[in-house]
Amino acid sequence: MVKSMDKREYDQLDSLSSSPNAEISRLSIIVKNLKDRVESLERNQTELMDKLNALKKNF
Questions:
Q1: Are 10 and 39 in contact (CB under 8 A)?
Q2: Comparing C-alpha atoms, which of 27, 5, 7 is closest to residue 16?
Q3: Residue pair 16/25 in contact by the 8 Å Cβ criterion
Q4: What three-state secondary structure class fits 30?
Q5: Distance between CA atoms of residues 18 and 34, nearest Å
Q6: What is each CA distance from 47 to 15, 33, 34, 54, in whole angstroms?
Q7: Neighbouring C-alpha atoms within 13 Å toward the C-beta of 51
Q8: Contact 32/13 with Cβ under 8 angstroms?
Q9: What DSSP character marks residue 18?
Q10: Which of 14, 16, 51, 55 could be disulfide-bonded to 28 (CB atoms 3.0-4.6 Å)?
Q11: What are 34-58's pLDDT values in tens digits?
């Protein structure tokens, strides 16, 4: 349920990026870029935790 809610919010963010109001458009692009960076960090953190857990199993 949370994922679909997040998707809806990001769809709304996409529509704001084409807003005729230049400031809103620029801010929505900044927010979208920040969202992408956070998601990338989350993926990297997950990968690192998986590697750490694998190392722990070996010792």
A1: no
A2: 27
A3: yes
A4: helix
A5: 17
A6: 32, 21, 20, 11
A7: 6
A8: yes
A9: T
A10: 16
A11: 999 999 999 999 999 999 999 999 8
